[in-house]
Design a protein that fits this description.
10 helices; alpha+beta; about 425 residues; Outer membrane efflux proteins (OEP); four-stranded antiparallel β-sheet
Amino acid sequence: MRRGLGMFVALISLPAMAHAATALSWERCVAEVTDNNVEMKAARNSVQSSEYLIQSAGSGYYPQVSGNLAYSYGNSTLSSGSSSLDSSNSSATGTYSASLALTQNLFAGFQDKARVEQATANTTVSRAALESTKARVSFDLKAAFQNLFYAQNYIKLTQDILHRREENLRLVALRFQSGRENKGSVLLSQAYLAQAQLDELQAKDAMDLSRAQLAKVLGRDRDEEIVVTGNVPVQEPDAQLDLKALAVQTPDHLQAVAQEAAAQASLQLARSPLYPSLNLTGQYARQGTDFFPENDRWAVGMNLSIPIYSGGKDYYNSQSAALLSAAAGYNRETIDRQLLAKLKQSYNAYLEAVQRLKVDEAFYLAATTRAQVAREKYNNGLLSFEDWDVIENDLVLREKNRLQSVRDRVIAEAAWEQVLGKGVIR
């Protein structure tokens, strides 16, 4: 009866403690993070910025058109040395000019192609970074949500253990008063009660910290009490996986490949000044002393520029870019090897967390049944305090382990998803 009352008090204590708290479901948290998380907003802006740079890089393929409107005033004739200042000023006139110029590049040493490829590769890098950010934020959300869910349930558990330790102390004290138990058993029961009180205090502190962590992930600045309801959805791990095939789909691999492509485009861009440049030009202009000028003139031409010597600048720039391109290739190989190790480690941890939860649930069921039988035996004098104490402590341990395993199983799956570059954020 006392144990049932203790469990009832534990169940109603959380709503009382979380007075006026904001209850958040898992679905609401996902929606709030998707809309408000500043890291993802920044990553999305970076992608959009990179996409605009692709359009900017492609501008070299199109003609460049410029207009010019000018007015000048001055002496257009040469005066002799014997002429007076007045006679020189008498020939001063005002001139208006208007022109429209067009330049079309025909060849620039593959510079335009390299710029477009570089911008495209950088956009791929930004998109992969966005996917990595989504996966990391998804992990942070799952971990924060589950940690708060764990903290809420751990408070219930510590309160249940506290009431159980109080009942145990009363039972041992009664037996001591009747001469059927020794003083050491009473002192040990008192120590267990003090430990249970400390566990309850630590559980409340842990819940405050978990609330702050969830609020941070959600992008909330205001200080308010939060409780979570429901569970984070979980899936059973796949029995067989092709880790190499998964590795080439991860944002980390895609980002490394794109960075290598950007470095190769930079090399081509650095070599472009070593090639000749060919431009087609055209101009139409009007000039005269009245506005708008009426005297027409036009010109069409070709301009071929051949680099001869630039002090070695272009050569050394291309050599530097070649080394950076090679370094990007080595970096991609390193990341690919690291990815395989990370995938294997994370997947193994995921499998172990799933199996550990099953084991801990089995131990919890066994410990609960044993504790019920042992309490009756001890109460009837059929079991020594030492044996009963071992069974009681085992129950407390199994209850805590099971609760931790529920949390760790969710976080291990979230960590596996993060390595894959996946998550709940779309």
